[in-house]
Amino acid sequence: xxxxxxxxxxxxxxxxxxxxxxxxxxxxxxxxxxxxxxxxxxxxxxxxxxxxxxxxxxxxxxxxxxxxxxxxxxxxxxxxxxxxxxxxxxxxxxxxxxxx
Length: 100
Fold this sequence. Notes:
Blueprint: E1 6-10, E2 13-16, E3 28-29, H1 49-60, H2 65-78, H3 83-99
Antiparallel strand pairs: 1-2, 2-3
Helix pairs in contact: 1-2, 2-3
């Protein structure tokens, strides 16, 4: 599977420079935008970066938050995050979406 190619455009902003799966070139996202308390489980710009891009894009096209969180979990696993950790991260994302 081809990797995600981005350019950094801000402190915590990236732009996709080549289409990545269903994400078009030009899409901008902020990495894993979880609250800092969850960064012990996921670095916003490394492990899970591809899954974060897909998650943000899914939300931008109107995917419901809970569906996007489930897809995020599956993508985390696809990109090598251990299942237990993917579950913790996806649960935090789902919870964050409910409280914000």
